[in-house]
Each structure stands twice: as C-alpha cells, then as structure tokens.
C-alpha cells in the first residue's frame, strides 16, 4: 500500500510545490537582475576628469598669474606671480591633510565635514557613489583641489602690490580652512545645508566667485589703498601678458564648468557650449559698453569681459540652455564693467578689479541660475523662476546672502587678527621699492636691476 501511495505522493508534491517554487525562483532571478551593479570605474569619465583637473590647474598657473602679473607695475610683477604659484603648493598640501575632509567629509550638522578623511584616510581609488559614481574617489578629490587653489588666488588681485608675503601665506592658509572649506561643504557636500535647501551652483558661482570677490572687498578696505593711488599713474606694465592669461583662463574654464559634470557625456557637452557662448556675449557687451562710454574699445576691456562672462555662467553652466547663456553673458559684461568703474567713487582700491568681476559677476550668475535653470537640461537640477518655480530663486537668494556674510565677516576677522599679530602691509620704503625686490630679492626685468652694490645689499645674487 505504501509502495503504491509513494508515487502518488511524489506527484502530489510536484504539482503542489512546483507552482510555489518556480515563481519564487523566477522572482529571485529577476531580483538578482534588477539589483544595481556595484560602482565601476569608467575609463572615459576618468580620463575626462583628470584632463579637466589639469585644465583648472592651468587656469591658476600660468593663466591667472599671467593675467594678474601683466596688470601690475613691473616692480611688482614677480611678487604677483608668486602669489598664484605658491598657492598651488600651499593649498595642495592643506587639501590632502585636512581641507578635503572638511569640505567633503561626512557631514557634521550641515555646516562642515568631519575629520574622518584627514590625510586622505579612506579616500581611495575606488568609486565613491556620493561624489564619484564612475571615477576613482581620488580623481574627484584632485579635481576639487584645483578649485580650492584658484579661489584664494583670485583674492590676491585686490591687495596686489602692498601685502607682506609672510602675512599673505598665513592669511591664505586660514582663509582656505575657515572660509572656503566650510562653504564648499554647505553647497556641494552631502548633508550641506545649502545643498539641502535646494540651492544650485554647478561649478562655483557662490563657492568660488562670490566668496573670493567679497573677501577681496574686505581685504581692499582693511589693508588700505596703494601709496599714490588716485594721484600717480599705475598702468598695467605688460598687457600682452594679461591677454595671454585671459585666453588661458577661457580655455581652462571648460575644465572648470564642463568638468563639473563629473563625466564625459551630454551634460558636459551642454556646459561646454553655454560656457563658450556666455563668454563671447560678455566680451561683446563689455566692449560696446566701454566703446560707448569712453569712445574706444580696449584690449584689456575685451579680456576683462571674457573673465566676467566666464564667472557669470559658472553656477548656471550645468542647468541652462544656449539662448539664456547669451543673456547671462551679455548682462555680465555690462554689470561688471559698471561695477569696476564705481570703485573710485566708493573709495576702495581693488587693484585688479576682483570685486567688480568676481563679486558682482558671481552674484549675478547665482541669481541668473534661479531665473533660467531648466530640468530639461539637467534632471538633477530644478526649474527656475522663468519655468514656473519661484522656490529656486528663493534658495539662490539665501545662498548668495549666506556666502556674502561668511566671506565678509570671516575675512574681516582673519585679517584683523593677522594685522595685530603679524602686520598686513609692507613698509612705505618697501612698497616704493616694489615687492619683487623687497619681498623676494629679485627683479622681473634686467632693466630694473639696481647697481650691483645696491642689489647685493638687498640680498640679490651675484651679477657676474
């Protein structure tokens, strides 16, 4: 009886259990197929990000130091170049030791990153999905380093020709740690409060340009005017240098903006196109504004217009279409030209127009993002005011005000402390002599060399 029942029991099990097992097996197989694959490095994205990192570094050395170095008097050319060059070294070390961890490390109350990644502990060569889904974490880190280098370098144009080099080094190290790193976390760090608010800054309108421009305003006021400013002519000593520098900035900015897509794809292409378009529009609008106001267009004006357009499109570059980018660039040229011409009336000596170009241009760019941003360009962004979303403009306004306050108050405190402890300015004699000789015992041009005895007295090398 048992032998007869056994086959029937087996058949029963097959018909009863199989309908349960097969769907479960299919479900398990489907679930396995639907599970997201582990992060994998994309060689094309990685190549683009390393190239973009080099392009952004080129913006500082030699782009910015040529642009700034040509605009000062020849006795201060090397001192001005040294500012940008040495920052590439100082910030590179600071970023690896603690800067990157403060800016992008695990969030602490939305205000700062923790020190979990100090010395790049835990920042390896595998992707880190929160920031670098298809590239090594260190590739993202080194790309962000280049932003951290150029931002304080921009400020140096405000106090060119008069700040002590020793104090400059201390100021920049403190500024990077207490202003740039927290602000980068607010806007770009996972958990940052401005990021959580929905504020958009694709490539650094607030983090780079407003912060440097407003800090430059504080520095120009606190350090004071150059001796003879407003009474003695202080023309640029080498305009070809400056135009070459501006041209390198234009080229390098494609790494700045298109690189912020963090991959080689359609978003990078869109950012590339609008960056070039806005810059061209700003060159033309600045040129025509100057032509109307002063009767002739200048080469320096055209170069300055290019920088203004690059600044203004930066925060919007990953969120706007080509036609709005023309509007952003055209307004930037006129606004920044007007702002640069107001500094003498307002009574501060911003030597190389950092406030007018980066402070004003960055502010306009951040607000323009709130007007023209479109999810049709970047699904990860938001629609702006002109696309039916006034909430984005509110977030952009809050981000602009927060950045202004942090930069202005923070920079003022740092400079006041350094003024008491180290002194900010060179002496009157050293300023008249020029920073090249007084701070570095060198001269950019042989025709500036004093007699051998005098040169040896200030520590120069033998002329034999």
Q: What report would you give on this structure?
A:
With 464 residues, this protein is mostly helical. It is 68% helix and 2% strand. The strands form 2 sheets. It has a two-stranded antiparallel sheet with strand order 1-2. The protein has a two-stranded antiparallel sheet with strand order 3-4. A hairpin with a 3-residue loop joins strand 1 and strand 2 (112-113). Helix 8 (239-257) runs parallel beside helix 10 (299-313) and helix 10 (299-313) packs across helix 11. The longest helix has 33 residues, at 2-34. The termini are far apart.
Order of helices and strands: HHHEEEEHHHHHHHHHHHHH
**Roughly how many Å is the radius of gyration?**
27 Å
Q: What fraction of the residues are assigned to beta strands by DSSP? A: under 5%
Count the domains. Answer: 1
Strand order of the largest sheet: 1-2
Share of residues in helices: 55-70%
In terms of structural class, how would the helical and strand content be classed?
mainly alpha
Proper CATH architecture: Orthogonal Bundle
């Amino acid at each position: 009886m048992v032998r007869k029942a056994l086959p029937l029991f087996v058949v029963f099990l097959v018909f009863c259990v199989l309908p349960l097992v097969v769907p479960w097996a299919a479900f398990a197989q489907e679930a396995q197929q639907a599970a997201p694959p582990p992060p994998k490095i994309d060689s094309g994205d990685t190549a683009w990000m390393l190239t973009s990192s080099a392009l952004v570094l080129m913006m500082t050395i030699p782009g910015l130091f040529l642009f700034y170095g040509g605009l000062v008097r020849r006795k201060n050319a090397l001192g001005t170049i040294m500012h940008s060059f040495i920052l590439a070294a100082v910030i590179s070390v600071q970023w690896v030791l603690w800067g990157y961890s403060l800016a992008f490390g695990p969030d602490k109350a939305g205000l700062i990153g923790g020190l979990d990644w100090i010395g790049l502990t835990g920042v390896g060569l595998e992707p880190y999905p929160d920031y670098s889904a298809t590239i090594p974490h260190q590739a993202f880190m080194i790309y962000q380093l280049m932003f951290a280098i150029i931002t304080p370098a921009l400020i140096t144009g405000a106090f060119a020709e008069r700040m002590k080099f020793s104090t400059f080094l201390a100021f920049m190290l403190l500024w990077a740690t207490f202003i740039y790193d927290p602000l980068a976390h607010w806007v770009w760090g996972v958990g940052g409060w401005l990021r959580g608010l929905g504020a958009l800054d694709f490539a650094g309108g607030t983090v780079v340009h407003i912060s440097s421009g407003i800090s430059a305003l504080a520095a120009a006021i606190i350090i004071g005017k150059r001796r003879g400013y407003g009474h003695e002519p202080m023309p640029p000593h080498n305009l070809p240098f400056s135009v070459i520098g501006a041209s390198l900035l234009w080229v390098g900015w494609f790494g700045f903006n298109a690189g912020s897509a963090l991959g080689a794809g359609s978003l990078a292409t869109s950012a590339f196109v609008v960056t070039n378009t806005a810059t061209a529009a700003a060159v033309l609008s600045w040129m025509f504004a100057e032509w109307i106001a002063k009767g002739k267009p200048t080469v320096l004006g055209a170069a300055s217009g290019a920088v203004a357009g690059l600044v203004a499109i930066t925060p919007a570059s990953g969120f706007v279409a080509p036609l709005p980018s023309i509007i952003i660039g055209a307004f930037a040229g006129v606004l920044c030209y007007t702002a640069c011409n107001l500094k003498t009336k307002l009574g501060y000596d911003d030597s190389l127009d950092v406030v007018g170009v980066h402070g004003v241009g960055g502010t306009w760019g951040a607000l323009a993002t709130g007007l023209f941003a479109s999810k049709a360009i970047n699904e990860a962004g938001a629609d702006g005011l002109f696309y039916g979303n006034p909430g984005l403009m509110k977030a952009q306004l809050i981000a602009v005000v927060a950045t202004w306050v942090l930069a202005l108050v923070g920079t003022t405190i740092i400079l006041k402390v350094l003024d008491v402890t180290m002194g900010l300015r060179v002496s009157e004699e050293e300023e008249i002599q020029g920073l090249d000789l007084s701070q570095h015992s060198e001269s950019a041009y042989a025709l500036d060399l004093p007699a051998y005895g005098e040169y040896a007295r200030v520590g120069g090398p033998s002329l034999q």
